[in-house]
Amino acid sequence: MARIFTASALGPRRRLLLLLVVLGFAGLAGIFMLRGPNGPALEGIPKGFVLSDVPQAVPDVRFSDGVGRPRALADFRGKVVLLNIWATWCLPCREEMPTLDRLQAALGGDRFEVVALSIDRGGVDAVKKFYAEIDIQHLAIHVDTSSQVGFAVATAGLPTTLLIDAEGRELGRLIGPAEWDAPDMVAFLKSVVEKGQARLAAPENKEKSP
Description:
Strand content: 15-25%
Structural class: alpha+beta
Number of strands: 8
Strand order of the largest sheet: 1-8-7-4-5-6-2-3
Distance between the termini: 66 Å
Helix content: 25-40%
């Protein structure tokens, strides 16, 4: 008759070996799950960032730029966008703004953009004054004086920051202030950009030649 072995029937060393084997397989499975089918794995998710299981649609919110021209999130399609909703009267927002400025200096370009969207009733003038006070050099001015963006994207307080992929879908969000130019944050955002580019370049996402 075949003998059936259970974990309790094994000696301490064999139980430990069995546990290590199981953990090893679990670790490998986790690595493959994080890699996903289309490109490099994301770097470690920074504390406070909550990623969605499935990318979520984002309303095409409307706002104005620093010279009063109408803008919308759709204008940034094709880039990974870090949409930071803030106000000059929000102390945590004021404290994190220089780190967003440095993040834009480090990563901003044709694949990534920090969109700092103020909901100040004072509009462009209030933001310009604040930017001048703390020497913001790299962030463009975006303002929604109606504050409707907060309702549109269901903010739970200020600051609220949405991570939006190049197709305009929310990947996740962080509620509250963060050190946006910290090495782990920069590495994470770089990996999001690279993964998005790899996915868009995948054969199934390219237009077929006639």
